[in-house]
Amino acid sequence: MRLSANAAIGAGLVGLLALAAIVATVWTPYDPLALSLTQRLRPPSALHWLGTDEFGRDVASRLMAGASAGAGIALMAVAVAVAGGLAIGLVAGFLRGWTDRVLMGLNDALLAFPGVLLALGLTVVMGSGREGVVLALGFAYAPSVARIVRGTVLSIREREFIEAARLCGTAEWRILTAHVMPNALAPVIVLATSMFGWVLLAESSLSFLGLGLPPPSPSWGNMLAASRPYLASAPWLGILPGLCIALTLLGVNLLGDGLRDRLDPRMVRA
Amino acid sequence: MTLLTVSGLHLAAGARPIVRDVGFGVAAGEIVALVGESGSGKTMAARAVMGLLPPGIARTAGRIDFAGHDIAAATGKQLRALRGPEIGMVFQEPMVSLNPALTIGAQMAEGLALHTGASRAEIGDRCRAMLARIGIGDPERCLKAHPHQFSGGMRQRIMLASVMLLRPKLLIADEPTTALDTLTQRDVLDLMVELTREAGTAVLLITHNLGLVANYAQHAVVMRQGQVVEQGRSADILHRPQQPYTRALIDALPRRGPPSLPRFAAPLVTARNLSVAHPGQQSLFRRRPAHLAVDDVTLTVHDGEIVAVVGGSGSGKTTLGRALLRLLPAAGGSIGFAGQDITAARGRALRPFRAASQMVFQDPHSSLNPRHDIGRIVAEPVQRLAAAERARAVARILDEVGLAGYERRLPHELSGGQRQRVAIARAVVARPRFVVADEPVSALDMTIQQQILALFKDLQTRHGFACLFISHDLAAVEQIADRVVVMEKGRIVEAGLRDDVFDRPQHDYTRRLLAATPLLAAA
User: Fold this and answer.
1) B258 touching A, CB under 8 A?
2) Residues of A in contact with B370 (CB under 8 A)
3) What gap in Å lies between CA A81 and CA A142, rounded to an integer?
4) Which of A96, B2, B116, B453 is spaced 20 to 30 Å from B338 by Cα?
5) Model pTM?
6) What is the pLDDT of residues B382-398, one digit of tens each?
């Protein structure tokens, strides 16, 4: 079975992002942090493909470095969210009883807040900077993973192979890791794909508000924030990072839909 | 007069043939059984009669004539006019075929509203009359109720009633009682015969159960791998089969094994006044009172004997098995194993019992972890052995169950019978002294059932473990059990040696169970 046209477009956009992010770690056209007082607010040209900002820094280089920083943070945040949510969901769903009620009560309370708002509050506590943002976003998005995992675990723990394992004298923690967890992973993988998009957007929002990566480190969010005074005189400064964010989200969502359709067993034809 | 004639029917999924050159006829008012194992194409042949083939399967040749209509050539609109008033269908699982979101009344009224010009009041009257006819005490309340408020047997009666409301000329019943226990099965089928006789409806009964054929059908069509093997009068097919496959099917019916001598050794497993409670449903403020699924049961199982627990659904037999294995907590009484009281043993104290007891579950799809390969599944009970020794034990037991070399396969690559072999291998690999087998063959095809029963008995004889064999299938019990315990509503109503219970049943419930078991001899 082939990916649909939409999914192919999504894969192309995400591939472009990944390529830019990886290349930026070893090479950018200019140093994204190098100031040049003579080259301030230049429009796109042969010398600077995407122009320069108010300090004369090369926008193309900063967008690439921003892609690298944003994708890295989003990946790590998704990893934190999946690890945390998986652990909480497995324990709550497997043990049931009071553990479940307490954990899921807290979880639902957190779920009541929008992810960005929660992350916003957490960065205030943890401080900005890379680690702070990763942890804040990870904690903010873990509850939705925990919900899904718990639901899956509840149905798996009633399956007879769990009882069979118990009858074999297998220890409870081994039943959890060897029998329950592998069967609970599939929905988490689908969720993690689409979560990457949300987290990337949330990271941009935090940076836009000045709570993400501190300047002068480039990120799409703080580039967008810094462009506001120049929107009339140097519109490329705002349009380009905005376009990057929009295209990346579009790509992730198209790819996520395509993956979901493909992983859905009901879509498999004889 | 012939009502339905199917001739030269070919069905195919793409290039793969599903049904090849199938022909049979159904006369008005008679019951014809379409018999076969899974994959024989019996359901697809019947669906073709209704013009209801699933997407991907198409009719490639053949004629289907129904009361002057050429179904093969009928348009969608013509077919819709036939379905309901002319041809009705009842499916295996009434929970799936009844819409859980609609009331019984809405679903019963649907066909009448579509196909007759009856007024709402008239439809209501006819539904109420039909529900009263099938023995529903309060038809008014039933019409307002939802499917989940009824038991499986009740749902199937309601399904039957709503199909028969339109008095179709032909009723297609696809394994209508396979999901039900023996007593309910008999009720539902007797009701089906009564209703169709009253309305003069012919029945095409799709089944894998030869006992049902003997008891209910005048004619039978035996199918295998998409082809008709043999057809004719039921009595001829069952008592004078012409084809080897038909004979194999009949030979696959369980037969009573040799009697065993009563044992005087000390019992291995004892349950004394054991009670198990199902917790009541938790509502917002209080827990509803629990009810006893197993109530004051006392029984013993000796080394090397098979004790069968029989009873209808809801009799508590499965709960008893799980409680004996300490998968469910006891609410009262005690469980002893090899002289030790294990009723409340935990952790280390329970370990010797866990090592010496095992279970075979009913559904091998659910009892094998889909992500583990066969080698790993079978190795689980012997996980404490060294790797080389473990691999040897697994290879040996897989060889014994006829699956040598299957270690690297995954459960979904195996057939139902093979999976149940894996489940049995896992149960006996650690040489347990006690095995609980919970309906181990009821999810399998009849020839496979026979193979698995024979394998199980063979392993039991060779390894000499004690076994609690839980089943609603009295024929299987008759074949392999040494002693029989009959349960009703959580209590033991009769217990004794197999031959005594089968030949001289004392309790009324046992007699009813035996009478409801469809047997060939009845034909």
Assistant:
1) no
2) 183
3) 4
4) B453
5) 0.81
6) 988 899 999 999 999 99
